[in-house]
Structure formats: C-alpha cells, structure tokens
Amino acid sequence: MDRKPLRSDLAWSSADRIVVRGKDLPGEILGHLNLGDMAFLELTGRTPNERESKLFNALVVTLVEHGITPSALAARLTYLGAPEAVQGAVAAGLLGLGSVFVGSMEGAAKLLSEAIAAGKDAKAVVAERKRIPGLGHPIHKPVDPRTRRLFEIGRETGFYGKYCALMEAISREKNLTLNATGAIGALACELGLDWKVVKGLGVMARAIGLVGHILEESRMPMAEEVWHRTEEESTRHIKK
Does 145 sit behind a cis peptide bond, omega within 30 degrees of 0 on the bond before it? Predict the structure, then answer.
C-alpha cells in the first residue's frame, strides 16, 4: 500500500540551528517578535506588519482574562486535587471553551465567512438561524465595551470591513448586544484567518489567564471553600 508522505512546514532543527516558519529562531525571532506576533507567524507563515500586529495582539489580549468563569473554576478545582500538575489544571480549564464560552468566536467567523461568500445580508442570515454566535451578554449590555474598542482598533488599522459591518447589522437586526467574541470573529475574518483556527486564539490566550488563576489559587486559595460550600448547600435539603 502506498503511504502518504509525511510533511510539516512549521519547524525543524539540527545540532546548531532551530528554524520556525523559515526564520532562524535565535537570530530572527528571539528579541524581535512578541508573543502575539509569534502566534501570527505560526498561523499564517509570515510576520505581521505594524497594523496587523496591533489588531491581532488586541484580539488575543481581550481573551486572556474574564474573572471567575467556569473555565477558571475548573482549573482551580483541578489544581486543588493535583497541585503537582499545573498543566493538568490549565488543560481542565481549556476543555470548557466551547460554543458558549470563548469558542463562540469560531461560530461567528464561520457564519460570516459563509454569509459573505454567499452574498447574504443581515436579514437573510437572521431568517435562517434562530441563534447567532457572538450576540448577547448577561452583563455587558446594551454595548459590550470590548467590542466598541476592538472595532475602534479595527478602524484605526484599516481592517474594519465587510465582515464587521455584517456582524453589526446582524446585531441590530436581532436587537442583541454584539459581544467581544462576535467582534473577534469578524475581525479575524478581516485579517484573513481561517475560521477553523479562530477558536484557537481563545485557547492560546486563555491558557495565559488560567496560569494566572492557578498562581493566585496557590497564594489565596478559594477552590476548597467553593467545593465545601457547594457540597453543603446542594445537599442541605437531604440532611434535614
């Protein structure tokens, strides 16, 4: 049976060289690229220009931290049970990123990519779908301040375009808050990123935030208190 050739264009190394996306790691990357620019290089195969760097870094910085969310609680509780495995605690938190939390930006990017390709307007999109990813927020309403700033940066860098305009039109059509993940999904499309990797922006960014939660948990623990109070309150009716 013929075997499919194995190939990767991401990186290679030898005794005296480490090359990532065609660039020498010590000579062309270290000290030259920040973390966001490195992520852009990894995803696209090229370093961003100044405008792309400003926007891309804004997108990922937005996603680093959002307080005591379910993913942060999962990380803290896992750390309580396995303090020797920081990576396990981070992984536990990342596993909760999906269609409701953080991952909705992928759904928004996919929806916008398909709608623009098909020439659909906001009314057509809303007519076809009951639920639109990237819309609505329990706290930030009627305006999500992150969305406002992200679109400002999009305009400053020249990347506010047809995807952003369509996302805002859909928000008006549904009369729902356009949240940060909807804005990020639209701006990621403007940057030319494949919608399939847009959730990955949240994964890489939130990993940083979760490390921060674990460090705080090691210094100011709350997971054990959360555990005991949850058990006590959820079983109170049984103990009566």
Answer: no
